[in-house]
Amino acid sequence: MKLGLLTACLPNRSLEQIAAWASENAFEALEVATRVVDALYEGGFDGVLSVEHEDPLWGGTEDKIETGLRVAHRTLRPLLVA
Fold first, then answer.
1. pLDDT band (50, 70, 90) for residue 75
2. Which residues constitute the domain of residue 14?
């Protein structure tokens, strides 16, 4: 199975390892984000990091969606190099 960007940037990671990262809940997001961003950086990725905001915990109302995006920003911002 090919995973596009993940396959290219995480060649030393198994599908099971990648799936484990994706299956952790939102409250473990900082640890997961740190591992993903570190692996992407180590793999030479220098593109755009996008947030797909589909977490049911932060959906349903505009306020929850905005809060979820702020959480994502606050979580990912310290991990970025540039």
1. confident
2. 5-79
List the structure tokens of 44: 């030479």
CB atoms within 10 A of CB 82: 3
Q: How many CB atoms lie within 10 A of CB 40?
A: 19
Rounded distance between C-alpha atoms, residue 27 and residue 19, angstroms: 17
Considering its fold, how many domains does the chain have in total? 1
pLDDT tens per residue, range 46-74? 888 777 777 777 788 999 889 988 888 88
Q: What is the pTM of this model?
A: 0.48
DSSP 3-state of 54: coil
Pick from 22, 25, 26: nearest CA to 71: 26
Comparing CA positions, the residue from 44, 33, 39 lying closest to residue 14 is 39
9: Cβ contacts below 8 Å, ≥ 6 apart: 39, 40, 43, 44, 45
